[in-house]
User: Fold this.
Amino acid sequence: MNVRLLLLESTILFLSKEPLLKACLTNTKSHNWAQVINLIWLSIPIAFLLSICLVYIWLNVLSPVDDIFLEQYKWGCYSIALSCIIEQCTQSIVLVVQSFCFVKLKIILDTIYILVRTFIFVCLVMYNPYSAIGAFAIAQIISAIILGISYFVFFAWYIPNLKMHNKKEQTNSQLFDDMKDFPFRSILDFFPGMMKNENNMLNKELCVLTMSFTRQSLVKQILTEGEKYVMTISPVMTFTQQSMYDIVNNLGSLAARFIFRPIEESAYFYFTQMVQRDVPVKNQNKESISESALVLKQLCNVIISFGLVIFVFGQSYSYTLLYLYGGQNLVNNMLPVTLLKFHCFAIILLAINGVTEGFVFATMSNKQLDRYNYVMVLFSVIFLIISYVLTILLGPVGFIIANCINMLSRITHSFHYIRNMYRNSPYKPLDGLRPSWKFISVLLISSYCTKLSEGSFLRTSIFAHIFIGAIFFFLTIVVWSLDNKELLKIGYDKYKRKQLKK
Assistant:
């Protein structure tokens, strides 16, 4: 489920929606929304075609599963494909949600989606433990339907209320304020061909941009999920090792999912609005360029700080986390602990790569994107070869090392692009990746003391070890806060303004 079936889901979803969504999020202020809605709905036929091809491969080409699970596995593949197609039916609304910054709505509905899927899966597995894959399949379909219905129900309620709000010219609701430019007058406008449009059905420039992002997304998917493709296609790891790797990967990716990915998505959208493609820096609005450079610098500062904290405390608390998560059986074999410690280093690179590459993709011209696609192809080929070789030599740890090499290559390219972009300007946004000596010092002290604590208290009193870690974690946060008073002041001022509006 967690390796093969979820790999099928991520492949279908990523390749069918990512290129269209990225293209449609570019410069939303000047959108012809009728054309954009028509374009984003192409994700459904694309998902359908991908599902046919990939489900055939998953059922007939990949190594077979045990006969006892075969029927459930088939049903799981079909359900994944169906849930992906259902989810694509909401992409027009997801695009609008991101474009008009319905941040809380997306967080709430995504949380509901995860909770519903988990609740249904757990209930069905408890009822019949031998049909876990079937329970997974049912949970996927039902949660996808609920997510889609929730989006449409919200806007079926929101649009009429927005009209009434605009007529009365009220200013006491944050949900409706500053939305006079909202172009949708009916829930039907989210469907293709329903909005009034005197131009062509599709925007040619966005179609060209989508093609550039399609080639890029194909390679990015290989780079992102490369280890799972290698695990699925070749017998370099047993299913037991795959399960251990997946547990550690999921735990280690919590920071990426809940902290770095939202930052990356928001940053990408922000930079697409502030920096124009195909226009040199010197010819762009100086205030926008200055602000975007400052934001990139601050983002770099925040993500490198998060990454270093996770790395330092991860070396002393990997065993503790896995023990609390899976009990003694999980840590009897030291492989998961070793994997998690290596993964903590990968998180630093993941954080840096997310923000810098997001800026690169948001500001590159079409020609630069096309050239970068060839670079990404080279990265992906090298990554797959290194993954295969290192896994044979080092086991599952080889996957994480290969990922680190892959991200270092992409980060190097992003650094080169950003430096060239700001070469003849006073802005140096990459300086944000240099933590202060105070912050580095407190991290080194925390690392030394928590390692001593691990050796002294871990086997006798795990809570004493956690308590010591909490003290040094608090000390680290205090030092970082003192180093970044201006950044915290900006965040506090924005929070105060929001509270005053309410």
The chain has a mean pLDDT of 85. Residues 286-326 form the longest helix (41 residues).
